[in-house]
Amino acid sequence: MSHLYIIATPIGNLEDITLRALRLLGEVDLIFSEDTRVTRKLLDRYGIKTPMERLDAKVEAKNPEKVLDLLQAGKNIALVTDAGTPGISDPGSILIRKLKSLLLFKLKNEKPVNFSHNELINLISVPGPSSLSASLSVSGLKESHFEFLGFLPHKKGRETLFKKISESKTPVAFFESPHRLMKTLNSLNKHLGKNKKVQVFRELTKIHEETIEGSASEILEYFLNNPDKVKGEIVFIIS
């Protein structure tokens, strides 16, 4: 029986790794990483020598069977991304779907299939740091529900989506990259009224962590006046 561990890694501060994650990263036969250079910094920090191979979005889409073959050969494998949790706006979901399809075929006489406990390959979650949960924890949202959009589309449907956000009565959270931040803020300023609160979370868990709150126009003005802060991973929450 082999295991595929989906392991969350720090989103900025390397001290945020869990004890369980460290133990498993040291015990598995192989680590598949979005970028081995990034993961190497984490492993070196904690003296972990487990071999690694690259599994970014392109490799995952092209050849997820490589991981499945190793699992079927009895290897225990960890899957990590550069930061946060695999499969959540990061590589991992294609591999997990392929693994589930394989198990559904192999265990076709078992209904329903238990992906975490079976005699072939066990799929195990190892939770940890998350920029989404970190943002929510300091957002002060009074609502108990929200809509998560992941990364917004680069081109097609962006403006339609911003219009939908402006009309939504449910809080909306999404990720944004620094090189699209100003474009997104301009669109939000165009579509959102002053009754919508915008929160921007930047460089979470790092030295220059920021939680900025205001109207879309106020947030836009803030970054226009502070162009040096248009960097790092960014989370939006609009309510």
Automatic annotation (TrEMBL):
The keyword Ubl conjugation does not apply. Keywords: Cytoplasm, Methyltransferase, rRNA processing, S-adenosyl-L-methionine, Transferase. It catalyses: cytidine(1402) in 16S rRNA + S-adenosyl-L-methionine = 2'-O-methylcytidine(1402) in 16S rRNA + S-adenosyl-L-homocysteine + H(+). It comes from the Bacteria. One of its GO terms (molecular function) is rRNA (cytosine-2'-O-)-methyltransferase activity. PANTHER family: RIBOSOMAL RNA SMALL SUBUNIT METHYLTRANSFERASE I. Belongs to the methyltransferase superfamily. RsmI family. This is Ribosomal RNA small subunit methyltransferase I. The gene is rsmI.
